[in-house]
Amino acid sequence: MSLRTNIIIAGVGGQGTVLASKLVARAAMDAGLQVRTSETIGMAQRGGSVVSHLRVSETPIASPLMAPGMADVLIGFEPGEAVRSLGYLRPGGTIVTNAHPVAPVAASPASAIYSGQSMLERLDGCGARLAIVDGDAICAEVGSTKVLNVALLGAAAALGALGFTLEQLENAIRESVRARFVDLNIQALHASARSMSAPA
A GO molecular function for this record (predicted)? Predict the structure, then answer.
């Protein structure tokens, strides 16, 4: 049976979802695997939804897009966006989501109470393996708010959900990220991975 991993990455514009897809794709190519990606971007520069389809396989891939129920892994940069993309996840799949919400771009003062907790509860009750990442804490630990994307990849890799090791993702970071940001991103990768093995 050939290796095949289908990944959905969901977030809002400005969170680094597209770079996260590129890092996983780079790790896949370095491993000699086939990879196809596609992004659906709505008002991305204004905080709108961004969904990336990422398909990795040992054999050729016909389409970069997934039908509902095909994804093995759902990485949510924001809990509401994870719920929005939940239909793509196969039964028994893995969800890795940031704990902290981002208010919808069209939020009015009346909707400013959105906390994300109800979204996390929805994810917890869907039957998938769920890992909740304290993205704010990891970003604070390494001193940058720009590394949430890599932190979520680190958590997914630590869970074995991506099919790539932290070392393979490190190499992808070194090849894809500007030199002055490499060490910062690698710190976030490992800080998040450690958080997955820490006692609850």
Answer: indolepyruvate ferredoxin oxidoreductase activity
